[in-house]
User: What shape does this take?
Amino acid sequence: MISFAIKTLLSNRSKLFTGVAGVIFSLVLVNIQGGLYLGLMKKASLLVDHNDADLWVTHKLVENVDLAREIPESWQQRIRGLPTVQKAVPYIVGKGTASLNSGHMEDVWVIGSDPDSMLGSAWGFVAGSRADLRRPYGVSFDEVDSEKLGHPQIGEWLEVNGQRTRVVARTNGITGFITMPYLFTTYNTARNLVRMPSGLTSFILVKLRPGKDRVALQQLIQQRIPDACVYLPEEFASISQRYWMKRTGIGISFGAATLLGLLVGLTVVGQSLYAMAIDHLKDYATLKAIGARDSDVCSVILTQTIWIATVGTFLGMLVVYLIANFWNSPLAPVYIRPLLAAASVVVMFAICIVAAFVPYLRIRKIDPVTVLIG
Amino acid sequence: MEVPVIETRGLIKSYRTGEHAVPVLRNVSMSVHRGECLFLVGPSGSGKTTLLSILGCVLSADSGEIRILGHDVKHLNPDEQAKFRREKIGFVFQRLNLFDALTALENVCIPLQLLRWKKAAAVSRSKQLLDLLGLGGLTDRNVTQLSMGQRQRVAVARALAADPELILADEPTASLDESSGLQAIATLKDLCRSLGKTVVVVTHDSRIFSFADRVLTLNNGQMKPSVHTDSLSAVRMDTNPPEPAKKAA
Ligand SMILES: Nc1ncnc2c1ncn2[C@@H]1O[C@H](COP(=O)(O)OP(=O)(O)OP(=O)(O)O)[C@@H](O)[C@H]1O
Ligand SMILES: [Mg+2]
Assistant: This one.
């Protein structure tokens, strides 16, 4: 029955094309929506994901890496004393206001790293380097924010919170969920820029000795400093992402768009399978008249729907791959996770099978006597 | 004593149209013997196709008895009817109903696929049948690219594919010109005779009556003796089954 199914399908090009297009459209919509959503979520945890720290020590009430709360700097000494700790350094994430030459003001996010390790400092340099950030008042900015900052050139001064900084490096691809320009610098410069009160800091980043247990140390620090919250990077990343997801409801809007994509797929595939079945009612009636079982008829429709799903999936994922690789920008990153892409394919197949149900019911109803009378 | 291939007694069938039940078959009794080639004739609307559908287990009678190949098919459920059709009955439909997307060979293979034959076996049997019908060179041609007469022969090959004991044909020559009509019916009859099949043909076509072993006439839902015409005089006409079939006991 397989050759009957496929030949019938191929003899009906326009409907086949519609069905395949439905699958492609649906898969692309779902994956690009999902990819944009994940890309946005990735932005929410950008500072965590690009940081080599093994543990993040934060204020109890911190819900997001960009919105830090002050903690005692002295915690780092208490942490350094623990046996498996290789390094514990302070890290500043704070807000400032840049005054541009044009007279405009622009809110910026100042990130300050320990100057020895430069843990959590900028990446993706297109001009300058991490080492340049150690120069007095040296800051880096990202190309994405160039316009917001009035197109600063390397070597130029930029005023932040009334203090002078020097632009020493430019990066590409560092843009966060909060959409404000990140300025990376060293810890002390950042302290001054954001006017951090003495004895306080934003986070303490911990590096473990090689081969030591992260979770054990996490628990140990938590015991020693009950006022702190100690997170593994992946925990802190997902906390930061969830914060924005809850606050903005983007999960719902992306979810709705994704659902819509699946619904469109269901409708288009169902419609084209149904139209195809209607075109071939005579064939199905004939099959039944010469003794086909319901299962034979079912296998014909299933074969057709799986064929449509397979071809559509192949082409759809190709389009997704092209979009994700060639249309991606740091502002709207599309982040395709293989597992999610695979899940979308599974869902698509399930949808195609569901879509085959209505035509199947229609064909089941055919009375073979219509072949002879009627 | 051999069991008749078809035996009906007092078949009654009516169609419902809205409130009314329109009687189509009123008390049809007939019997057909193995190897016989029976023609069923009668005016349009007399119920020929309805009777053929009941004989082919596609339609159920309202009442009366019916045994096909010794089976009481009246009480079969739709699944059992389908099984009976694919194993025991070959159909040649009035409009042929070939599968247009398929080649001649694939069309003939379908009944065998329904019987779960292995592909190679199905192909070789189908080729053999198409050869027998003089279509050996056209097996891979799409059926839409064949002449009406050739398509007719593909339909006959498909009806014979599963080696059924009973062949039912509804107006098999309706769409053919005279010479191909005569040729088609001659082929059908020869083939069925040599393969020992029983054939029931519904037809209007008086040109082919001479191919019948026996002609039954249906009029207004009842079996009636045919009017003897010159062209039919050679054919034995009766409404009752030939005596030897009657149960001796
Ligand atoms: N589904 C149906 N519902 C109602 N009436 C029907 C139905 N099918 C057939 N009939 C009627 O039953 C009668 C017999 O139909 P049938 O098709 O058996 O006749 P026939 O002898 O084969 O005619 P023809 O030679 O024109 O093919 C006709 O009057 C027809 O209108
Ligand atoms: Mg008829």
Summary: Chain A is about 50% helix and 20% strand. The two ends of chain A are 26 Å apart (CA to CA).
